[in-house]
Design goal:
binds zinc ion, 3-stranded antiparallel beta sheet, 8 helices, about 200 residues, 10 strands
């Protein structure tokens, strides 16, 4: 792909090229911004736009003459728990639905006021051994659906790290499981309390 650049007669530092689809003289950066903000349909799929986008890196949002703001398009990313691609992820990890279910579990009741049973079976506290840049460290997760999710969380937080070991902790240790009954009823205390 050959792109012909011209120097602007009045601003020699400004290089432009002729964009035929838009019938305009553009700088590589404004072409990149058009591509990233998908300002025009033709910009999204344009190979020249992609090349400029790679070359110039992420561009800031643009505002046109009418005041309309064009923000760079954020790619949808998968939720680390359910895998559904979403534009909005809470803490860059959970989709809104998974986050709400987790909140209900922490509170101990769902929107109907009942104990969340299904999600309680699925989520557990977990401890991971994470290898990152030559170091090993422990990562505790309050709620996790399994090793796959733990691996996705670690990759998202630290792209160069990986989970070397994963352990699902007993629900008894989870903060949410501290119902008065479960905490105070120790098997030995029951036995000693029984009459001989
Ligand atoms: Zn989700």
């Amino acid at each position: 792909m050959q792109i012909e650049y011209r120097e602007h007669p009045e601003y020699p530092s400004l290089r432009t090229f002729r964009c035929e689809p838009l019938r305009a003289d553009l700088s590589p950066a404004s072409c990149a911004r058009n591509q990233q903000t998908e300002k025009f349909l033709t910009c999204r799929a344009s190979p020249i736009g992609r090349a400029h986008s790679q070359q110039c890196g992420p561009q800031a949002a643009a505002i046109d003459e009418t005041g309309k703001v064009f923000r760079p398009v954020q790619p949808a990313r998968p939720c680390v728990r359910c895998g559904v691609a979403a534009l909005r992820l809470i803490r860059q990890e959970l989709c809104v639905s998974c986050y709400n279910r987790q909140l209900e579990l922490r509170r101990g009741r769902n929107a109907k006021g009942a104990r969340p049973v299904i999600v309680a079976k699925r989520l557990h506290p977990a401890r991971c051994l994470v290898h990152r840049d030559g170091n090993a460290e422990l990562l505790d997760l309050e709620f996790c659906s399994g090793r796959e999710e733990a691996a996705a969380i670690v990759k998202r937080r630290w792209p160069t790290a990986h989970v070397a070991d994963y352990e699902q902790l007993s629900d008894r240790l989870a903060p949410r499981a501290r119902s008065p009954k479960r905490r105070t009823t120790h098997p030995f205390s029951i036995r000693t309390a029984l009459p001989e």
